[in-house]
Specification:
247 residues; alpha/beta; 60s Ribosomal Protein L30, Chain: A; Alpha/beta knot; six-stranded parallel β-sheet; four-stranded mixed β-sheet; 10 helices
Amino acid sequence: MLTKNQIKLIKSLHEKKYRNEYGLFLVEGVKSVSELISSDFIIDHLLTTPEFFNNYKKIIADKNIKYDIVDQEELEKVSAFESNDSALAVVKQKENIPFETSENEIIVALDEIKDPGNLGTIIRIADWYGVKKIVASENTTDLYNNKVISASMGSFTRVSLFYTDLKKYLSETKLPILGAFLKGENVHTTEFPKKGILLMGNESNGISKELEKIVTKKITIPAYGETESLNVAISTAVILDNWKRNL
């Protein structure tokens, strides 16, 4: 049985202020937790159903992960999911540190992405296209939000995210900056650089005016129908696909 203190701690981590206070976050579900236990994240504690434990007991033992075996009912008492029949991990957050860039590398930059589902999906898309680094404005939604982690489907373990003053970061970089706008060069015909930064804007307002001035090249996805705009995560996928094919 879980103790009252365990239950209280896990439930508190559904809120950002407590995640920040304790430096911890939650990972839930078979896909995300199975990716997590093979990563370099440090797991503070694992709650696992007997079935999940039997499937992953070797790696749990090899990595000396502290765990409790619980039933599905106990797991769902503390889960943010409506249904969780596998596992829940309490995990230590990584330090927010800048990363080095290498030759022929594409980086995604995010200007005030607010929806957790969008951020998680963008992380998953970046992983799909081999983009390992995302730089985000300080007011972009929290990486360790439960919905972000869930939507990334384990890709958060392979893609690094750095929060910073985005204007300062972009002003100081020597990389070309391609910004997604409603009016710009057609992504199907534009000449993409071998390395650079793809800047994606806020869901409602797009790229801010102050960052627009820093953009090297404005690009757009041509519309063939009548809808006004595309979802930011879908747009990221379309642009990265064209960028990669161009290379």
